[in-house]
Amino acid sequence: MNGAAFHWTVAALVAAFLAAPSLVVLGASFTTGTIVQFPPDGFSLRWYGDVLAARELRGALARSLWVAVVCTALAVPAGTLAALALARWRFRRAAAIQLYLLLPFTIPLIGSGIGLMLLFGELRLLGSVWPVGLAACIINLPFMIWAVAASVNALDPELERAAANCGAGPAQTYLLVVLPAILPGVMAGALLMFILALNEFLVSLLLVDARTVTLPVQIYNSIRSILTPDLAAVSTIYVLIAAVAILILDRVVGLDLFLKSK
Amino acid sequence: MKPDGARSALRVGRPSRAAYPLSWRALDAAEALVALWPDRWSGAVKWLFLAPALLIVGFLLWGLGVMADASLREMDFSTYRLTDERSLANFAKASGSAAFWATARRSLLAALIVTAICLILAFPYAYAMTRTRSAALRKLLLIGLFLPFFIGQVVRAYGWLILLGQQGLVNDALGTLGLGPYRMLFSYPAVLFGLVQYMLPFAVLMLAPALAAVPEEVERAAESCGAAWPRVLRHVVIPMARPGLIAAALVVSTLTLTDFAMPAIMGGGGADFLANLVYDQFFRTSDAGLGSAITLILTLLGTTVAGVLLAFAGASALGVRSAR
Fold first, then answer.
1. pTM for this one?
2. Of these four, A208, B66, B106, B141, which has the most CB atoms within 10 Å of its CB?
3. Would an 8 Å CB–CB cutoff place A22 in contact with chain B?
4. Partner B contacted by A18 (CB < 8 A)
5. Do A21 and B163 touch (CB under 8 A)?
6. ipTM score assigned to the predicted complex
């Protein structure tokens, strides 16, 4: 066996391993029976109808979407401005600031989750849905900064000077020149934040109660008791959203971006 | 802002500003608003840009502060409130508990095993992805990577529950061969299995840029000097891709060490990690003090490992090039 054959064999097996659970969930959602199984027993959309009728699942999905919207709305301006500031101005403690902004990645999720749970408890924020969105924004913010930074680095600073030369004030320069130029990065970051917030599980689990359950927590609570096909149907939403997100990401920035060394 | 003389000269003969398009007037208003910022405060503008992000991360530090404070107070089980006096009693309780050490050992061993398997599996995948000449094949491998990355841990664990259960596809297939059924779920190996699948995309994404940076010519040169591919791999590719290997190892090991969902779903209560122990302290025994202490230990452990990663990657890990 030569080298190429070896690594292609392993790569193919790994690809199958990676795809397996998503395909199983997708397939099992179409079963006609009442027991969740793969391959499915026949083909029907009855469980999708059940999901639309189930108030609990619909409510959890709506709350998860709201969490994702809050998270994205907070992260996009904060992350974009921070990436611009770090790339455009010299800070005396630039390295320390970057380390500080990376804290959400270096602190384990359980640590962030428990800390925010105790803090939100003291601030009496538990019991509403929007603090979960704020928490999702806090723990994923470096992704947003990182996505925008890639675009800001590629932007020629001369462009801003040229705009100023043509008589544009600072507001005009930023709104009509800089923002359109970094838009791909901003969009990629917004997409990442939205998807990550929609999938956010551990921190949500710590922050929600029975009335504010988000979709991943609802699925988690249900699969611990009984496996029913309606959960497979609602999980399919995640597979679909992931597929759409990859399509958009590929269009906007190109997936190859992730293969480039910094 | 420009001196007003030039502007008013331009305006001569124009009927009224109201005739301007709305977008122009909006931009003029924005400029006027920006001009209100005093010149002597221009040095503060960069901090104004940075402030929202600093504030958002500040919540995290504040939360950790609250947690550190709670870890120093003992839970009084007669009133279910934390005591006012501060002591290290919770840390003593944690380090004196056999359950804590057993769980810590289990988490650390998992981090080691999962990291080793992930590196072995991720390396060929990343190598194939960066070396293929077919753009379509590369895209396919990238999609195969991002699809699970964008589907949360809970949904993926759910897929495994369906596939590996008593009536699942795997047991059915074994059944036709006259084997089984085997009880594959709710065990330590099942947790490791789920974790490897969860961590693989992270490992590949950390490895791929490092492998892309190894010039193919170097490999060809080694081959033309007579080295067979295992030797090229061992003496050329792996040493040159070492930063990526280290980064992948540290990301996978910290995420595994602190994982909650896989042990909770695939372990069935018998293969808990430290994060599950923390959860139980808060939601089963209601001991917020002890729970905070264990979380703090775990946070320090994880942050130390991540800090080592950052030291390797340099402060540019956020991807921001230093200011011009």
1. 0.88
2. B141
3. yes
4. yes
5. yes
6. 0.89
